[in-house]
């Protein structure tokens, strides 16, 4: 690539010819402010906050979308630029509900930060805040139009990354809003509740439905036995909310915190991830041996489940009937665990801490119950956990690391890798191989199934059988595979599909920002958890073995069907 | 008045290929296709000094050269017939008067730049034009002027007629491209420009109706003959759409170099009802409001540039002394509020702040601070909006602030000299 | 044929690619006397073209010639751009409001008329002008508006 020399605020810099002004300036340590710009998304050029002066031009150039030219003289810090940026910011603020102190994103808002950086003082423009009713129609996601600054990032996440298209622009001019068709509530359109829109929103216009109060209330109630589970992806991301480096593993600190605030048992979703592998692995073998519907598709990602129910109901038969680890956990607590501890299931409250907003809706699905007891009662996200920690005034940084409670605190590395794309497949292959062949799998790291790429595949010889598998993440990628299945061209036995890009570590409930760079660090941490585990194959989990011996009897058995498996609904007409 | 680009309008049956041919139609294209190389055509158009007639007055030959230089499996020629600038109806005269001339222009352009597919995007408000073009393209397909191996040569070109659906912003070329692709008509940031990255990411030539209608004539008469019309900076003729408080409203073809005064008082017969002229707005709602004293300006790109004015689409709206500047600005701003696409902050938010302040002034509650707000926001819109719509929207405000500042001031002081505004706040201010 | 099959027929005729969406929407609107596209139609088009429902709605709500809300059987579109404004479009608005008993943006109770502003449609030569169901009426004044409304009312019966 040719090098070009440009001048930024008097400093010469040599950059590649396809560089934008924004990138060139960063090379000179000038950090031009941005708002609609997101490192993982297309350049939009719509907020205009990144404008700069270019010598010889009458009007400003937007730094994010203007490519440099040889000899360009760029001025980023003139009186004119500063005044103009302030004016643009005032125009944004005039149409923004600036009640920061009660905002979900207070302290972590790009607009708020920028106001401080641009030295915004009193705004003397007319206020045009759009005070439409807040959409709280569903258990997962809340939308507050009064905060929206129309950057369009959420549309890109929903429409282009996920291929769901629940929201788009409506109307035009100052009446343009970002909303579902007919400005309906999210519950009335085909939204999968993945929350990817939340992760890219620079402000507090879209956020998770808050269930923190319910958790505090449960903990306060001395008649209730409150049990908590933590998903694999939470422990590698929570630290970010407290200024730790992305990829910090804080499992022990979370356990210690949860115990401190009064949970009766602190368990690990990784345990039921192991259990899922046993059930799902057996289901796969059963399908292969009995000419069942193939390829079988994983079923642990609730956003993905909603997606197939909405858009590909004709393929529901391909879905594994296994409940997700979250739901298996709840079902076992209110049956097996209730029996063993002699507590009435009605006195048990199961709380989940998940990286995911769709999990909140999954827990509320009608079929996710046994004997009238909903498997899981309250779901909070990683972000909500961070808020609870802050609210409790406990300094997580200073907490000692503690271990999970028995018995459901015991898990293997295979359960841990569920949190990253490719993890379920890797865990399944480790077990299926050994169960089928009876031999020990020597190379248990399936490197080619790891990483953030949208499509991965592998061919794994398992005894007589060659198992073809594929792994995908992000629903737009999933769509490609689903179309292949429809055309009969997907020559796979088993496909792992995760709703969110990167898998659960990139879930809609994770700390913000959640960029690809950060997601890769979280993935690294997940595999570190796996590597550091004493046991790394689900079928070797001793508690899983006990569970079958004492209670479930056998995989895919009657009890399993009652508690651990589920069914799906055609929602294409909704 | 001249009769050059519009000479066949009203003279022949618009859908008669025979009549068009009998009057020299398609001779330019035939000459180009059979006797000239694409390079020769591009340099002829460059020599002719033809500049875009849609508003931006970009040199046509240079644009063609940019598209021709691109290497791509597919290129497109788009005729921009989304004539949305208020007070502009000159393209309609060509569209309905001589559609084949425009198609011939597209054919030459396609051959010169190496495109095999063309679109004509006609605003939805012109159903008759759309219908006429559908018929014209069908006739020309049957007659071998469109389709494969045109005139037996190794040249294929087809045209699809597309209808707009009511969005002024689609006159902006990248918004138009978005609309053809089936999207909301929201402008893309530039660069990349359409010659490099246009429709479906391919090199695309977008030319205005009037620009394309000039092409067959330039091929017929040659660059030198064409340059005899007009001035050094502005060759040829221009279609002017005249409206407002004038005696003769309509579309008139004039030679570049004619003065605005001649247009208003000679061609258009002066101000109606024997009233006096207050100002003209030139180039539509996005154009400048020029006071009477500037009427001696000559219609010429260079001369206009010297005054930092754009000729725009060539619309002239004449306004007499009964009009209140503030009420006019209010109407003009309402237009942009309705037509802003909503994509960029400056335009989406700016217009309504201006309107609010103007309304305060026309209601008699305005202060100097409101004039300040109007000025500041107009400036930020002009200098920081993403596309031409937002950049040009405040032109009427900035020019009236320049030439009619007193009228802003008198309103703030509680007085509307034309009596148009009912200043309700007056009592408060002076009481 | 019903609305559903008529809408599908339009898609079949115009084409299934996403660039045909606007053309399809324009034609789909013509199927309804009330000059709008129904939710059912938008859903059908979304499904047939494989474009998300929200995007189809977003596009239908972007372009001013398309409507997602019911209008009158006669849609009176009054130009309020420069040339018509200069030629006293305000009087035309007032005359229509007086004769129809509705204001801009409203529909008469019998559903017969609705009234709205429209940007310049190039009839500046005969300003002030209005457009009623594709037909243009120019050089209007109070009397002409009164006559026009009477004619349309008779025509409707």
TrEMBL record, chain A:
One of its GO terms (molecular function) is iron ion binding. CDD domains: fer2 (cd00207). One of its GO terms (biological process) is ATP synthesis coupled electron transport. The lineage of its organism: Bacteria, Bacillati, Bacillota, Clostridia, Peptostreptococcales. The keyword Calcium does not apply. One of its GO terms (cellular component) is membrane. Coiled coil: none annotated. Transmembrane segments: none annotated. It holds the Pfam family Fe_hyd_lg_C. PROSITE patterns: 2FE2S_FER_2, 4FE4S_FER_1, 4FE4S_FER_2, 4FE4S_HC3, COMPLEX1_75K_1. Its cofactor is [2Fe-2S] cluster; [4Fe-4S] cluster. Residues 80-119 form the 4Fe-4S His(Cys)3-ligated-type domain. Its main location: membrane. Keywords: 2Fe-2S, 4Fe-4S, Iron, Iron-sulfur, Membrane, Metal-binding, NAD, Repeat, Translocase. Residues 2-80 form the 2Fe-2S ferredoxin-type domain. It comes from the Bacteria. It is found in: Membrane. This is NAD(P)-dependent iron-only hydrogenase catalytic subunit. Residues 139-172, 180-211 form the 4Fe-4S ferredoxin-type domain. The keyword Nucleotidyltransferase does not apply. Belongs to the complex I 75 kDa subunit family. PANTHER family: NITRATE, FORMATE, IRON DEHYDROGENASE.
From TrEMBL, chain B:
This is NADH-quinone oxidoreductase subunit F. Residues 326-371 form the NADH-ubiquinone oxidoreductase 51kDa subunit iron-sulphur binding domain. SUPFAM superfamilies: Nqo1 FMN-binding domain-like, Nqo1 middle domain-like, Nqo1C-terminal domain-like. The keyword Iron-sulfur applies. Keywords: 4Fe-4S, Iron, Iron-sulfur, Metal-binding. The lineage of its organism: Bacteria, Bacillati, Bacillota, Clostridia, Peptostreptococcales. Gene3D superfamilies: 3.10.20.600, 6.10.250.1450, NADH-ubiquinone oxidoreductase 51kDa subunit (3.40.50.11540), NADH-ubiquinone oxidoreductase 51kDa subunit, iron-sulphur binding domain (1.20.1440.230). It comes from Alkaliphilus peptidifermentans DSM 18978. Belongs to the complex I 51 kDa subunit family. GO terms for molecular function: 4 iron, 4 sulfur cluster binding; FMN binding; metal ion binding; NADH dehydrogenase (ubiquinone) activity. Pfam families: Complex1_51K, NADH_4Fe-4S.
Automatic annotation (TrEMBL), chain C:
It comes from Alkaliphilus peptidifermentans DSM 18978. Binds 1 [2Fe-2S] cluster. This is NADH-quinone oxidoreductase subunit E. Gene3D superfamilies: Glutaredoxin, NADH-quinone oxidoreductase subunit E. Pfam families: 2Fe-2S_thioredx (PF01257). Keywords: 2Fe-2S, Iron, Iron-sulfur, Metal-binding. GO terms for molecular function: 2 iron, 2 sulfur cluster binding; metal ion binding; oxidoreductase activity. The keyword Iron-sulfur applies. [2Fe-2S] cluster binds at residues 79, 84, 120, 124. Belongs to the complex I 24 kDa subunit family. Its cofactor is [2Fe-2S] cluster. The lineage of its organism: Bacteria, Bacillati, Bacillota, Clostridia, Peptostreptococcales.
């Amino acid at each position: 690539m040719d090098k070009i020399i440009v001048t930024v605020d008097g400093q010469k810099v040599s950059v590649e010819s396809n560089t934008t002004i924004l990138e060139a300036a960063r090379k000179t340590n000038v950090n031009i402010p941005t708002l609609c710009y997101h490192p993982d998304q297309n350049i939009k050029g719509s907020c205009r906050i990144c404008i700069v002066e270019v010598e010889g031009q009458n009007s400003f150039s937007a730094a994010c979308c203007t490519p440099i030219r040889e000899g360009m003289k760029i001025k980023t810090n003139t009186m004119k630029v500063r005044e103009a940026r302030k004016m643009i910011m005032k125009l944004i603020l005039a149409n923004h509900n600036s009640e920061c102190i009660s905002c979900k994103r207070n302290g972590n808002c790009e607009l708020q930060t920028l106001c401080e950086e641009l030295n915004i003082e009193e705004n003397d423009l007319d206020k045009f805040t759009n005070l439409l009713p807040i959409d709280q129609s569903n258990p997962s996601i809340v939308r507050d139009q009064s905060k929206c600054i129309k950057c369009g990032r959420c549309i890109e996440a929903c429409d282009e990354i996920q291929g769901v298209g629940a929201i788009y622009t409506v109307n035009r001019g100052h009446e343009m809003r970002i909303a579902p068709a007919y400005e309906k509530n999210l519950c009335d359109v085909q939204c999968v509740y993945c929350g990817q829109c939340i992760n890219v929103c620079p402000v507090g216009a879209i956020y998770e439905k808050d269930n923190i109060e319910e958790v505090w209330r449960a903990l306060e109630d001395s008649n209730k036995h409150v049990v908590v589970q933590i998903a694999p992806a939470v422990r590698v991301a929570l630290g970010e909310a407290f200024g730790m480096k992305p990829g910090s593993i804080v499992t022990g600190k979370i356990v210690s915190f949860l115990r401190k605030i009064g949970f009766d048992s602190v368990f690990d979703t990784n345990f039921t991830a192991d259990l899922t592998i046993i059930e799902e692995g057996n289901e796969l073998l059963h399908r292969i041996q009995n000419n069942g519907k193939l390829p079988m598709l994983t079923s642990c990602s609730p956003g993905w489940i909603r997606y197939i129910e909405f858009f590909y109901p004709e393929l529901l038969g391909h879905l594994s009937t296994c409940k997700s680890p979250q739901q298996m956990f709840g079902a076992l607590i209110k049956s097996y665990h209730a029996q063993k501890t002699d507590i009435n299931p009605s006195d048990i409250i199961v709380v989940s801490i998940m990286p995911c907003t769709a999990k909140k809706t999954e827990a509320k699905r009608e079929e996710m119950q046994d004997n009238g007891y909903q498997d899981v009662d309250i779901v909070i996200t990683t972000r909500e956990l961070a808020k609870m920690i802050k609210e409790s005034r406990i300094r997580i940084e200073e907490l000692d690391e503690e271990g999970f409670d028995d018995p459901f605190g015991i898990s293997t590395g295979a359960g841990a890798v569920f949190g990253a794309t490719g993890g379920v497949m890797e865990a399944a292959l480790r077990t299926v191989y050994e169960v089928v062949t009876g031999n020990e799998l020597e190379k248990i790291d399936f490197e080619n199934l790891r990483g953030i790429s949208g499509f991965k595949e592998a061919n794994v010889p398992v005894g007589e059988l060659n198992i073809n598998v594929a792994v995908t993440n992000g629903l737009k990628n999933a769509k490609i595979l689903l179309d292949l299945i429809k055309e009969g061209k997907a020559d796979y036995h088993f496909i792992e599909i995760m709703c969110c890009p990167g898998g659960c570590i990139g879930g809609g409930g994770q700390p913000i920002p959640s960029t690809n760079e950060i997601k890769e660090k979280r993935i690294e941490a997940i595999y570190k958890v796996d590597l550091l585990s004493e046991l790394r194959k689900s079928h070797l989990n001793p508690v899983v073995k006990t569970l079958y011996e004492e209670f479930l009897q056998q995989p895919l058995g009657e009890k399993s069907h009652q508690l651990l498996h589920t069914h799906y609904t055609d929602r294409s007409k909704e | 008045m001249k009769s050059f680009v519009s000479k066949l309008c009203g003279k022949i049956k618009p859908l008669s290929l025979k009549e068009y041919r009998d009057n020299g139609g398609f001779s330019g294209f035939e000459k180009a296709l059979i006797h000239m190389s694409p390079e020769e055509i591009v340099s002829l158009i460059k020599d002719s000094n033809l500049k875009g007639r849609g508003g931006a007055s970009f040199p046509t030959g240079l644009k063609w050269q940019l598209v021709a230089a691109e290497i791509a499996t597919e290129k497109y020629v788009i005729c921009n017939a989304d004539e949305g600038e208020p007070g502009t109806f000159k393209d309609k005269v060509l569209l309905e008067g001589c559609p084949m001339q425009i198609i011939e222009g597209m054919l030459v352009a396609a051959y010169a730049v190496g495109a095999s597919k063309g679109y004509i995007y006609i605003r939805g408000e012109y159903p008759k034009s759309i219908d006429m073009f559908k018929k014209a393209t069908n006739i020309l397909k049957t007659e071998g002027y469109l389709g494969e191996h045109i005139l037996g040569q190794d040249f294929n070109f087809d045209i699809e007629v597309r209808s707009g659906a009511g969005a002024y912003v689609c006159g902006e070329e990248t918004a138009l491209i978005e609309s053809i692709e089936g999207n909301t008509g929201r402008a893309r940031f530039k660069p990349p420009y359409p010659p490099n990255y246009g429709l479906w990411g391919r090199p695309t030539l977008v030319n205005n109706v009037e620009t394309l209608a000039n092409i067959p004539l330039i091929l017929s008469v040659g660059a030198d003959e064409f340059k005899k019309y007009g001035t050094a900076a502005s060759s040829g003729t221009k279609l002017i759409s005249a409206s407002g408080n004038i005696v003769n409203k309509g579309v008139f073809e004039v030679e570049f170099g004619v003065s605005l005064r001649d247009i208003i008082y000679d061609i258009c017969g002066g101000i109606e009802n024997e009233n006096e002229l207050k100002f003209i707005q030139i180039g539509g709602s996005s154009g400048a409001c020029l006071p009477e004293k500037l009427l001696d300006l000559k219609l010429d790109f260079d001369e206009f540039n010297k005054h930092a004015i754009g000729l725009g689409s060539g619309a002239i709206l004449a306004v007499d002394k009964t009009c209140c500047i503030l009420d006019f600005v209010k109407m003009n701003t309402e237009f942009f509020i309705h037509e802003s696409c909503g994509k960029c902050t400056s335009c989406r938010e700016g217009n309504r702040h201006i309107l609010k302040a103007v309304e305060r002034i026309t209601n008699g509650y305005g202060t100097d601070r409101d004039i300040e707000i109007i000025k500041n926001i107009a400036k930020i819109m002009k200098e920081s909006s993403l596309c031409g719509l937002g950049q040009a929207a405040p032109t009427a405000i900035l020019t009236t602030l320049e030439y009619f500042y007193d009228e802003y001031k008198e309103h703030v002081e509680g007085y509307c000299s034309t009596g148009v505004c009912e200043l309700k706040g007056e009592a408060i201010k002076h009481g | 044929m019903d609305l559903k099959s008529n809408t599908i027929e339009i898609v079949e005729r115009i084409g299934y690619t996403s660039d045909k969406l606007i053309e399809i929407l324009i034609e789909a609107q013509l199927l309804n006397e009330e000059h709008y596209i129904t939710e059912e139609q938008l859903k059908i088009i979304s499904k047939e073209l494989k474009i998300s429902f929200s995007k189809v709605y977003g596009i239908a709500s972007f372009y001013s010639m398309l409507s997602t809300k019911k209008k009158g059987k006669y849609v009176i579109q009054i130009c309020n751009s420069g040339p018509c404004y200069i030629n006293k479009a305000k009087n035309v608005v007032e005359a229509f409001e007086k004769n129809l008993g509705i204001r801009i943006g409203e529909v008469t109770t019998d559903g017969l008329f609705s009234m709205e502003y429209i940007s310049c449609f190039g009839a500046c030569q005969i300003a002030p002008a209005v457009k009623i169901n594709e037909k243009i009426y120019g050089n209007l004044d109070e009397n002409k508006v009164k006559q026009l409304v009477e004619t349309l009312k008779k025509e409707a019966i």
